[in-house]
Amino acid sequence: MRPPLDGLTAELYKVVFGLLLLLLFLLFFDKFVQDAVYSSFMRAHKCYDLIPTSTKLVVFDTELAVGAKLSPLWDSKKQEFVGMLTITDFIQILHKYYEKNGSKNEGIKGLEEHKIATWREELQHDGHLKPFAFIRPTDSLYSAVQMLCKEKVHRLPVVEECSGNIAFILTHKRLIKFLYLYMMDLPRPAFMNKTPRELGIGTWEN
What is the per-residue pLDDT across 70-91, written as a single tens digit (0 to 9) for each? Predict the structure, then answer.
């Protein structure tokens, strides 16, 4: 039989056991923190940190005729931004009018006389018009990533709170480039040593 532990031995046992638990917790916590380093980085920085030194932004009034590929849309009647005109919108409109009125040529030619507001009405009628998604300069980059994923958009306007003006357009490319600039200074997460297939990214089966 084991002899009963005296007071000193029992106290020492508790201390050693507590230190072991603390060590295990620190090892697990360190791994957790290391794996979450990129999300922590995004939480620590604001959208304002990505603002370019020079911003030139083209804004369309919805009453203007169509004549460019991409732009935020300004409603002069409401005096506010109402959406973004994207390549996806162009594709949807072209697809709809390609065979309109029984003539492909007439359908396409009709687009030349359209206003942007007409396009928005068409998209709204078809259920393709998305609400204007934007973010503030003081919001974190993590919030921006969440919104890009939630709204399924590739461009997110950063709107100033005081003036309501769009400071710049935040994109996936700009976010990744900003993270890349600091990657060498950040701890390397364990998942960076895995392949896309091991991480479940992409389609690997028929």
Answer: 567 767 777 667 777 777 767 7
CATH number of the domain residue 128 falls in: 3.10.580.10
Could you give the CA distance from residue 113 to residue 97 in angstroms, rounded to a whole number? 13
CB 44 within 8 Å of CB 139: no
**pTM here?**
0.60
- Look at residue 78 and tell me if it is in a domain: yes
Q: Report helix, strand or coil for 132.
A: coil
Q: In angstroms, rounded to a whole number, what is the distance separating the alpha carbons of residues 88 and 60?
A: 17
Residue 40 structure tokens: 């922590």
Domain encompassing residue 147: 47-187
Has residue 126 been placed in a domain?
Answer: yes
Considering 2-6, 54-58, 192-196, the range whose residues carry the highest mean pLDDT is 192-196
Q: List C-alpha distances in Å: 7 to 13, 17, 70, 144, 188.
A: 10, 15, 77, 57, 46
Whether 155 is covered by a domain: the verdict is yes
For residue 37, give every residue at least 6 positions away whose Cβ sits within 8 Å of its Cβ, in sequence order, or none: 186, 187, 189
Residue 13 covered by a domain:
no
